[in-house]
Design brief:
By secondary structure, the protein is of the alpha/beta class. It has two domains: about 1-185, Leucine Aminopeptidase, subunit E, domain 1; about 195-500, Zn peptidases (Aminopeptidase, 3-Layer(aba) Sandwich), CATH 3.40.630. The chain has 15 helices and 20 strands. It has helices at about 30-40, 45-50, 85-105, 125-135, 165-190, 200-215, 225-230, 230-240, 280-285, 290-305, 350-365, 380-385, 395-405, 440-450, 485-500; strands at about 1-5, 15-20, 60-65, 70-80, 110, 155-160, 215-220, 245-250, 260-265, 265-270, 310-320, 330-335, 340-345, 370-375, 390-395, 415, 435, 460-465, 470, 480. It is elongated, with a radius of gyration of 24 Å. Bound molecules: ligand BES and zinc ion (ZN) (2 copies).
């Protein structure tokens, strides 16, 4: 799909589908939609009334034209209530509209710039949201299907704008959306692929390929390398698996004078629970336990294209959590890379074990800031559901910036408290700490465990409850969401842009 910013009038564009919009509760279209309505002798207003089209967010209405304008069809998409309108709504409306265009078998789509000028949204931002919503909404994972696929036939997607001075901004917005959108769909592909394809060594080869294509540095440790490096917790989790574990370090380096951000992604390619075995119902879907790793790798790929003035290291501890003759037992004790000893009371709380070693690695290598992303707890899913992920951290400014970055790309994060009074629940009888506490406050406990290895480095932890969704929405189909790839990219990119001003 090629995106273009086009200078001109909507009513003059030849295309298969012309996308215009309507706020909820508005019966007389105004602005650009009004102009198209006029060119069609009021056909849009007539159809809106006849079909009782309400303009609910993502609702669509198709109108066939009769030679009054060069567009074959007009698609009206609902923008929802005007007072609830923002970039997320532009993305969702665009996703819904683009999906309808696929149903209509459109090759060339021309769209109005939704929401430009409304609620103080900059044209660059609206264009970014339109293009990003279109890319995400039309994503499908079809590699493993041999029949019943409805391919996306849209080859050209134009955003048309009358005022010439907005055109450069629109092009900039489109370019950013392409980079972010392609990164998010890259992450989705990795998460949607099954665990017999995406193994730890597959993840490391993906990292190596990203490094090759973008001239980044990449270092990969195998089982022996992990043990020799002293990452005993990662090695312990990997002991039950026939698949070789990997520890990946992918570096985007600019200058020693600039800060280094460490991005850490949980890379459990399948989580059976280990000896603390999951039930059948809980186990199905656990191929997505590497969604943190996918987001981090995808973000690195995008950052290498955006080239922000900052250093970023991505760390991916990757292994299966399986059962086998060598698998660890509940009650076993291991020494982390930090030197702290950990009693593994529950082998299903494996994410925090491998993250602890990765966080210790980031601290040792002098990172100024650490962001970890992990499908860490079922408790976070219980608390927030699958459309919102949890965020906790020891640095409120960092947490706030990440939440804001998420808002710009439809990735919803909600802060949970890092309540340190609960830390003592992780005290072990025989080691420095144990990996689980009771049943309460699971997401907070998980975060507190990881914090124990940060050595007070500014740190934020995203507990990824929204890695996969169980039914389609406007921006993603059932399956992987690719979250929080966009958040990571936008946070790092905008951090640096602001620094330059
Ligand atoms: N990968 C799971 C967490 C998870 C479960 C995320 C379901 C999303 C959906 C993690 O490794 C795990 O099993 N956590 C345990 C921790 C518990 C033993 C303290 C959990 O949440 O049950
Ligand atoms: Zn687990
Ligand atoms: Zn897990």
């Amino acid at each position: 799909m090629e995106f273009r910013a086009v200078h001109g009038s909507l009513v003059e564009q030849p295309c298969d589908v012309l996308v215009v919009n309507l706020f909820e509760g508005v019966t007389e279209p105004g602005g650009a939609t009004g102009a198209v309505d006029k060119a069609l002798d009021g056909l849009i207003s007539l159809t809106i009334r006849e079909e009782e089209f309400e303009g609910r967010l993502g609702q669509t209405l198709v109108i066939r034209t009769r030679d009054q304008i060069p567009a074959s069809k007009v698609l009206v998409v609902g923008l929802g209530k005007q007072d609830e309108f923002g970039t997320t709504e532009i993305m969702r409306a665009s996703g819904a509209a683009a999906r309808k265009c696929i149903d209509l078998r459109a090759h060339k789509v021309t769209s109005v710039l939704h929401g430009a000028g409304v609620a103080g949204i900059h044209p660059r931002e609206s264009a970014r949201a339109v293009a990003l919503g279109t890319i995400l909404g039309t994503y499908q994972h079809t590699r493993l299907k041999t029949e019943n696929i409805k391919p996306n036939m849209i080859d050209t997607f134009e955003i048309v704008e009358l005022s010439a001075e907005k055109l450069d901004h629109i092009t900039q917005g489109i370019r950013r959306a392409e980079i972010v959108g392609n990164a998010v769909t890259f992450a989705r592909d990795l998460v949607n692929e099954p665990s017999n394809v995406v193994t730890p060594s597959y993840l490391s080869s993906v990292a190596e390929e990203i490094a090759r294509e973008n001239s980044l540095e990449c270092r990969v440790l195998d089982r022996q390398g992990i043990e020799e490096a002293g990452m005993e917790l990662l090695a312990a989790v990997a002991r039950g698996s026939a698949q070789e574990p990997r520890f990946v370090e992918l570096k985007y380096k600019t200058s020693d004078n600039l800060k280094t951000i460490a991005l850490i992604g949980k890379g459990i390619t399948f989580d059976s629970g280990g000896y603390s075995l999951k039930s059948q119902d809980q186990m199905y879907g656990m191929k997505d336990d590497m969604a943190g790793a996918a987001a981090v790798l995808a973000a690195m790929r995008a950052l290498a294209q955006i080239k922000p003035s900052v250093n970023v290291i991505a760390l991916v501890p990757a292994t299966e959590n399986a059962i086998g003759g060598g698998a660890i037992h509940p009650g076993d004790v291991f020494t982390s890379l930090s030197g702290k000893t950990v009693e593994v009371v529950n082998t299903d709380a494996e994410g925090r074990l491998i993250l602890a070693d990765a966080v210790a690695y980031a601290v040792k290598s002098g990172s100024d800031e650490i962001i970890d992303v992990a499908t860490l707890t079922g408790a976070c899913v219980t608390a927030l559901g699958v459309e919102i992920s949890g965020i906790l951290g020891n640095d409120q400014v960092l947490v706030d910036k990440l939440i804001k970055a998420g808002e710009s790309c439809g990735e919803k994060l909600w802060q949970l408290p890092l309540h340190r009074n609960y830390r003592k629940m992780l005290d072990s009888d025989i080691a420095d700490l144990k990996n689980v506490a009771g049943r309460e406050a699971g997401a907070i406990i998980g975060a507190l465990f990881i914090e124990s290895f940060t050595n007070n480095t500014p740190w934020a932890h995203i507990d990824l409850s929204s890695a996969t969704i169980d039914k389609d929405n406007e921006l993603a189909r059932k399956g992987a969401t690719g979250i929080p790839t966009g958040t990571l990219i936008e946070y790092i990119a905008s951090e640096v842009e602001k620094g330059r001003e």
